[in-house]
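Aim 2 progress update. The chain analyzed this quarter is reproduced below.
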Amino acid sequence: MMQLTLIGWGAIGQAVASRLDGEPGLRLAQVIVTDRRLASVRQQLGDSVVVATQLDHALMREWQQNRDHVLVLECAGHSAIDRHVLPALAAGFECALLSIGALSEEGLPQAIEAAALSGQTQAHLLSGAIGGIDALASAQLLGLDSVHYVGRKPPMGFLGTPAEAVVDLSALTQPHVLLKASAREAARLYPKNANVAATVSLAGLGLDATQVELIADPSVTQNIHEITARGAFGEFHITLKGNPLASNPKTSALTVLSAVRFVLNQVRPITI
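Predicted structure tokens:
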């Protein structure tokens, strides 16, 4: 039996739980939320799920002692990694992360690795809204020469970012390049748009050698991701046009599905 903990109960967490509901060999056992949401989520989920503001490591050890598979899935945003994921890894609990953009923070990838080594467990970085990560990570083993990521969104997809200071997003009539920089710089300046660029870079050449271009494009209605990679393996070009999650237009539906697929691969007898 898998005992699943979700860190976060927003649109992503709820969509993941809904899609996993009823899966044999899997139980949603624990949900971690903020103080503000504690009472409402407890009322929503009832007594069958532990709802708390901190992981109950003692309870999780009991599950492990019962030979259950204990998995922590982070879908709460960057701050959850410091607060919940690092201590869980150090305590020996396997974790899967969706907030990959956080790893652009100096020293955080090393901290995650050190915590996982200390706890003799693993941290899984999920592909989220982008495809082709398996091919990119495989190609990296033979050597990559260049990796270029282009993120294209409707202008309003960049609300609340530095783009508002350099262009009138609502007045754009043609594509406008907001940024050409390394993945690390893109994540620093556009943290709300950093997850895909960070995932691509961590699978390939790293944050400093991966080139990123962000474009506000009034002619598109979807979030469009393009990866071009070249190396000893050959080269590939991938374009993915992602539809938003119905309950939260700022989130790609594929982000949820990537987490669901990962969890299902832990409990089903055949995986791909």
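The chain has a mean pLDDT of 94. The chain has ten helices and 13 strands. These observations will guide the mutagenesis experiments scheduled for the next reporting period.
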